[in-house]
Design brief:
Length: about 240
């Protein structure tokens, strides 16, 4: 493992990033997410919630925090549709530009995606059966990561699923190679490596969850060089 976390501002987070460069980076990151099966890490938990809601005669609500271009909820929406399951899909992001791209993506795929502009380190505008987040926490310093986990847990009525990079030497090598093979965007080249260096370890994520009050949360390794936090209200009382 890379021993110490090195958090530097990522270029995608720069509000002055030109729209063309932002769009290119969003598209290339969605491609990387697809090949890394980012949505697949979250799907078993989301699928279980959709099935549980259907057994109760209702439609589950799924909230994706820091949705970016919306590739995760759109992919999950396609998989749910393929299995004949319904859901209300919602995306939240602090970037209005990213949300516009998410609306475009959802429209092309025929997925109804409700979108809200909000800072997830403060509060979330809606609650949902299952709250998900992918590749968000590593953008934040420790205090804001705790704030984000606290906000997400407050919005999660049944389950919270948070997937992120795991800080490791193999992960760094993978990010460097994949970003250069699969993207020509300098923004992606820089951010892919910076993301791994700024990521938390499994042990650190468990500590953040405790600090945010997510008692009883589990954190496990996920392929490739990822980790998944899972928490439900009441987990602490059952531990």
């Amino acid at each position: 493992m890379l021993e110490s976390r090195q958090l530097v501002p990522e270029r995608m987070d720069d509000p002055a990033l030109p729209a063309h460069d932002h769009d290119r980076a969003l598209a290339d990151l969605a491609r990387l997410n697809s090949l890394a099966r980012s949505a697949a890490i979250l799907w078993p938990g989301v699928r279980a919630e959709l099935q549980r809601a259907a057994s109760q005669g209702r439609i589950a609500t799924v909230l994706d925090v820091a949705t970016g271009s919306g590739d995760i909820p759109v992919t999950l929406g396609r998989w749910a549709r393929r299995e004949g399951m319904q859901a209300r899909w919602i995306g939240v992001d602090a970037s209005a530009h990213a949300l516009a791209r998410a609306a475009d993506r959802a429209g092309r795929e025929g997925i109804e995606l409700e979108l809200h502009e909000a800072d997830a380190t403060r509060s979330l505008p809606v609650r949902a059966d299952v709250v998900i987040s992918s590749l968000f926490l590593h953008h934040l310093d420790q205090a804001h990561a705790v704030d984000a986990l606290r906000a997400m847990s407050a919005a999660a009525q049944s389950t919270l699923l948070v997937s992120d990079l795991r800080r490791s030497a193999p992960g760094l090598a993978l990010a460097w190679t994949a970003s250069r093979v699969l993207s020509r965007s300098p923004v992606v080249h820089f951010d892919a490596v910076a993301s791994v260096r700024g990521a938390f370890s499994v042990r650190e994520l468990r500590g953040l969850a405790e600090a945010a009050g997510l008692h009883g949360a589990t954190v496990r390794h996920a392929w490739p060089q990822r980790m998944l936090l899972r928490w439900s209200p009441g987990d602490g009382s059952r531990s």
